[in-house]
Amino acid sequence: MGYKYIIAGLLIGFCGVVSAQERLLSKDAAVSLALENNFGIKVAKNQVAIADNNAGILNSGYLPSFTGTAGATYNELNSNTEYPGQFESNGSPRPDLEINDAESQSYNAALRLDYTLFDGMGRRYNFKRLKEQYQLSELQARETIENTILQLFSVYYEIARLTENENVLRQALEISKQRIKRAEYSFEYGQNTKLDILNAQVDVTNDSISLMNVQQNLANAKRDLNVVLNQNLNETFVVDTLVSFIPRLQLEDYIAQSKENNVAILQTERNMAINEYDIKVNRSGYLPTVGLSGSYGWNLNQSAATSFLPGQIIPGSNRNSLNLALGANLTWNLFDGGGTTVRVKNAKIAYENQEIFKEQVIMEVDRDILNALGIYENRLQIFQIQEQNVVTNQNNFERSKEQFQLGRITSIEFRQAQINLLNAQTNKNLAKYDAKLAELQLLQLTGQLLSVEF
């Protein structure tokens, strides 16, 4: 055997030892990591938190507004008053009146409370609308989670398929390496020609390359899963290759309840409820608004001395006042040019459109479920056929191996039996995970993807 085959065998054996030491990433653990770390799910959860804040009492309009104001003013006055042509009683000119550094200050503070007693029920319906918006955001987050879970398992089962294919190819490579030894022994004893050795070496090379390609694809798929799970790209693990299918009767129950659980249908229902509240909110424009207001204020004015009459200075003064005011107001827009009427009509049309859209979604969901069920049953039957095909090819390979060892068939015929078995095993692996993914897609359409065990 050439040194190339020895090195390839050592590398493949080393990879097998490393794989045996890797931790098992179960399906439940993968789902938990995705729910906790996935980027898209994190964003969806934040959107739900925003909707929750919007639907809270602090954003409802039911609470009063309470404001406080304060202010201060400072003035400094320098003035010089002249009296040209004016004289005192003794005949002397009237002197100028000069005021320097005359300071004045004013201070004020006030508290004001405003509360809307009645706004035509618009506040109430808008608050209910925000509650519906919150439920819609939860459904949107659920849709994101469902899509992420499907993405997760499409990668997870691809890793499982490649893992099983790797084991199959490793076994095929081992068989081909044994053929080289047998061909070399037979050649030494003159039982065959050098051609048998060369054929076996070619098969070892092909099997080695196939195994290396699968291992590279497997490493890439694991990195893809690490992205979905938002963990270290070089994180190593092995996955669970065991797959079980849901009984048909249980699937039929899920399908019968799909209209109550499908996320797309539920979203249309929430949108209809939102549109219904939009109509009521717009109708509130026909009714008056009644509000209460109250204020409490304090003012302090400190005035400086000023000149008033010729030759007289009015001394400064302090004025301190407190003010309490209560009031009620009623506002009724008796006619706004028809704007409220137009908004109500448009809201009703939007509601009718949402009803039409719901009917469309229900029909599309029914179609998608029937298609998904047909695809699932077809793939499940293919998997069962492939399982039987593996049994048949395994028996054929064992018989061919016996005949080859007895020298009754050629190495080419034996290689063909080996290839047939290899193809049957890889096709079975593909059919198994295709059927499981089709089942998961059917579960998503019935609204049960997040309620079943994986």
TrEMBL record:
<keyword id="KW-1134">Transmembrane beta strand</keyword>
<dbReference type="InterPro" id="IPR051906">
    <property type="entry name" value="TolC-like"/>
</dbReference>
<feature type="coiled-coil region">
    <location>
        <begin position="127"/>
        <end position="179"/>
    </location>
</feature>
<keyword id="KW-0998">Cell outer membrane</keyword>
<comment type="similarity">
    <text>Belongs to the outer membrane factor (OMF) (TC 1.B.17) family.</text>
</comment>
<dbReference type="GO" id="GO:0015562">
    <property type="term" value="F:efflux transmembrane transporter activity"/>
</dbReference>
<protein>
    <submittedName>
        <fullName>Outer membrane protein TolC</fullName>
    </submittedName>
</protein>
<keyword id="KW-0175">Coiled coil</keyword>
<dbReference type="InterPro" id="IPR003423">
    <property type="entry name" value="OMP_efflux"/>
</dbReference>
<keyword id="KW-0472">Membrane</keyword>
<dbReference type="GO" id="GO:1990281">
    <property type="term" value="C:efflux pump complex"/>
</dbReference>
<dbReference type="Pfam" id="PF02321">
    <property type="entry name" value="OEP"/>
</dbReference>
<keyword id="KW-0812">Transmembrane</keyword>
<dbReference type="GO" id="GO:0009279">
    <property type="term" value="C:cell outer membrane"/>
</dbReference>
<dbReference type="GO" id="GO:0015288">
    <property type="term" value="F:porin activity"/>
</dbReference>
<keyword id="KW-0813">Transport</keyword>
